[in-house]
Design a protein that fits this description.
The structure is a single chain. This protein has two domains: 306 residues, 3-Layer(bba) Sandwich (FAD/NAD(P)-binding domain), CATH 3.50.50; 116 residues, FAD/NAD(P)-binding domain, CATH 3.50.50. The strands form five sheets. Strands 1, 2, 3, 4, 5, 6, 17, 18 and 19 form a nine-stranded mixed β-sheet that branches. Strand 8, helix 5 and strand 9 form a beta-alpha-beta unit. It has 555 residues and is of the alpha/beta class. 30% of the residues lie in helices and 17% in strands. The radius of gyration is 24 Å and the shape is globular. It binds flavin-adenine dinucleotide and NADP nicotinamide-adenine-dinucleotide phosphate. Flavin-adenine dinucleotide (FAD) binds next to helix 1, helix 2 and helix 14.
Length: 555
């Protein structure tokens, strides 16, 4: 990597930057750190008043990660990973937010950011090879490289219940939770939505609320987390092998440091299957999905896992009618994001918790109740756990255009990218964990670091080589998208109406938006592209761009 030491860091008010990074979550923080360390002038822009991204916004009761924190954390600094101690196997939101604040302070990243600032538009002009970034509050900044670290789960799905305004009590959204703790003790509360956010909220508030109505449209598959406090000896042992464990995570398809199996459920005996499913249940969490290699490619194998999980639900929930209504049957196990819980099915054995099916009748709101069919459920507060306009929501919320062409037009039939990191027609625009990369079906921190490193190496190549612009070739993009679709079509994922295919947002084009070839295969492909001189990408030399200041050519 070229050493750019000596190039001054930007003044806080200097609006002409080498790079602008939008977002201050895991991705934006690392991108700003990495690019600044290369000597580029970098401005980070974040809508929130502080760092954290997902972990800033999602402060709902019980919010926590579902990948062990020793893995769901940065690997880029050996000192950082050695010095930080996690209190629990799966850290809760406040601890992850503390960690990201620590990272921001430790690497002195805050001074590069403008907080409480929303980007509303960005336009590229090929004549001077610059992005102009428009801020919602007025004002503009310009840059050579625009990096979208805006998050795949950062734009809440619009809450569009026509009668909601009639309800006079407070309505909370898990992904926009107030900064102050909300006390639900003794109150009558409804939680609408039974995805990961809903389950964490439900299991946490069920302990103290007077009455809890769980409004369910589609039952989820969920596996226990078996969360526990960190064992200091285990942590010490893990940290003594941290590099090895990080390498192991990067060598898998999920980005977790687990041993991946090639065992097939369909070629195993019934006893072997039962034993392995049971063992995976006891280990808990997302690795359950990898108990056998064929669970997400064969419907028959999938049914076996689904039967196992349904039997668990039936064995936990005491009331047979409630248990029956909690059984997921309408989609393959894992094809909607499986949940990881702490006592979810058990809460339905509490007298103060009722499962309310809303699939048939939907919900209506009155002044002080939720109407489902002919029943009025009196409530003091409503919690929306209704999810996100995932993967593309935050990207398309920004009006992005290049030489007059808009990104929302280019993606009208669904997002098109090359490797999920660039999109044809939009030079020098980089997406961190964008559509058609492993992103949300991987350990996100692993994928974020890999993407930011790829972008940094690419910018280094451009800065050294007197290159003004990089652009994805349309043909290479078509081939990548066909490859992504081909892999997805060989699995059960597209069969579910999930947010992976945009089905949770009315009118969103249906397209499977994640690369399923795995973290390792994907990273190898990205590395190969750099090694082979960027096949599939076009470069524009600085010399051919009319208005570019030649003094920028630092090579
Ligand atoms: P984000 O953390 O979403 O940050 C994006 C930032 O960009 C936000 O702060 C947002 O305010 C800002 N932004 C967006 N648009 C603009 C704009 N126009 N102008 C200014 N600022 C803007 N993944 C895992 O791998 N494991 C987990 O256990 C896990 N748990 C999760 C739990 C929850 C509740 C949620 C919602 C997601 C979880 N995820 C998990 C996925 C999560 O999205 C990633 O792990 C990761 O946090 C994403 O980081 P990011 O920096 O890419 O995006
Ligand atoms: P989600 O998985 O999309 O779940 C949304 C829930 O709301 C679903 O049950 C959905 O029902 C319901 N819903 C949405 N609109 C509705 C409507 N109009 N009427 C009735 N029901 C409606 O969203 P999420 O729970 O926020 O999770 C999103 C993703 O964030 C997760 O999949 C995961 O990747 C991540 N996450 C992770 C964790 C963690 O454990 N670390 C925690 C939270 C979130 P249908 O299924 O019928 O659409």
């Amino acid at each position: 990597m070229m050493d750019y030491a000596g190039i001054p860091a930007p003044d806080a008010d200097d609006l002409e930057m080498d790079a602008i990074v939008i977002g201050a979550g895991f991705a934006g923080l690392y991108a700003v750190h990495r690019l600044h360390s290369m000597g580029l002038s970098v401005l980070g822009i974040e809508k929130a008043i502080g760092v954290g991204g997902v972990w800033y916004w999602n402060r709902y009761p019980g919010a926590r990660c579902d990948i062990p924190s020793l893995e769901y954390s940065y690997s880029f600094s050996e000192e950082l990973q050695q010095e930080w101690s996690w209190k629990e196997r799966y850290a809760a939101q406040p601890e992850i937010l503390d960690y990201l604040n620590h990272v921001a302070d430790r690497f002195d990243l805050r001074r590069h950011f403008r907080f409480s600032t929303t980007v509303k538009a960005a336009s590229w002009d090929s004549a001077d090879a610059r992005w102009t970034v428009d801020l919602e509050a007025g004002g503009q900044c310009r840059c050579k490289y625009l990096i979208l670290a805006v998050g795949g789960l950062s734009t809440p799905k619009a809450v569009d219940f026509p009668t909601l305004d009639t309800f006079e009590g407070p309505v909370y959204h898990t992904s926009h939770w107030p900064q102050q703790e909300v006390d639900f003790a003794g109150r009558r509360v409804a939680v609408l939505g039974t995805g990961s956010s809903g389950l964490q909220t439900i299991t946490t508030i069920a302990k103290s609320v007077g009455q809890l109505y769980v409004l369910q449209r589609t039952p989820p598959f969920s596996v226990p987390a078996w969360n526990r406090p960190t064992d200091p000896d285990e942590e010490k042992a893990y940290k003594s092998r941290y590099r090895e464990m990080r390498d192991k995570a990067r060598s898998t398809s999920s980005g977790f440091a687990v041993d991946e199996t090639s065992l097939l459920a369909l070629s195993s005996s019934e006893d072997q299957r039962r034993e392995r499913f049971e063992k995976s249940w006891q280990v808990g969490g997302l690795p359950f999905g990898g108990a056998f290699a064929d669970l997400l490619v064969s419907q028959e194998a999938n049914d076996l896992a689904a039967d196992f999980l349904r039997a668990k639900i039936a064995s936990i929930v005491e009331d047979p009618d409630t248990a029956r209504r909690l059984l997921p049957t309408s989609y393959p196990f894992g094809a909607k994001r499986m949940c990881v819980d702490t006592g979810y099915f058990e809460v339905f054995n509490q007298d103060n918790v009722e499962l309310v099916d809303i699939a048939r009748d939907g919900v209506e709101f009155t002044r002080d109740a939720i109407r489902v069919g002919d029943r009025d459920l009196p409530v003091d507060a409503v919690i929306m756990a209704t999810g996100f306009d995932a993967i593309t929501g935050s990207i398309l919320k920004i009006r992005i255009s290049a030489d007059g062409e808009s990104l929302s037009d280019a993606w009208a039939q669904g997002p098109q990218t090359l490797l999920g990191v660039m999109t044809a027609g939009f030079p020098n625009l980089f997406l961190v964990t964008g559509p058609a990369s492993p992103s949300v079906l991987s350990n996100m921190v692993v994928s974020i670091e890999q993407h930011v490193d790829w972008i940094a190496e690419t910018l280094d190549h451009m800065e050294r080589g007197g290159i003004a612009a990089i652009a994805a070739q349309p043909q290479a993009q078509r081939e990548w998208m066909a490859h992504v679709a081909e892999i997805a079509d060989a699995t059960l994922f597209p069969r579910a109406d999930s947010w992976y295919v945009g089905a949770n947002i009315p009118g969103k084009p249906r397209q499977f938006m994640v690369y399923l070839g795995g973290v390792k295969a994907y990273a190898d492909k990205c590395a190969e592209i750099i090694r082979e001189g960027y096949p599939g990408f076009d470069f524009t030399p600085i010399a051919t761009v009319s208005d570019v200041d030649r003094s920028e050519q630092r090579a």
